[in-house]
Amino acid sequence: MKKVTFLSVLTMFFATTLVFANVWLAAFGWVETNHNFGKIKQGKPVTAEFKFTNKGEAPLIIGKAYGSCGCTGVEYPKEPVMPGASGTIKATFNAAAAGSFNKTVTVESNAEGGAVTLNIQGEVIQ
What residues does 79 pair with on adjacent strands? Predict the structure, then answer.
């Protein structure tokens, strides 16, 4: 009987922990996740700023943010973003080659839902 009671209490403890663990997650609240530069001049880098707010209950920690190619540089907050606070991820496209482009920035963090993909696009003209 003691084993059954102990196992029941232990099971309820783990179930409660799993339920409340989801409440204490960090969560991105993005203003936008897509940016279209339109037509830009070749050789003039352009930067998109992706603004977000931590809508979760835990500090938001961005472990890594990177572009889909070497033509896109990324800046992101290195310090935790506290609940309710805001931050910005900057994606700079070098615009070296003429033509249309569609690039992504992957943001890896402790936020609910895992990695987030941001998109930049446009057309480089001579």
Answer: none
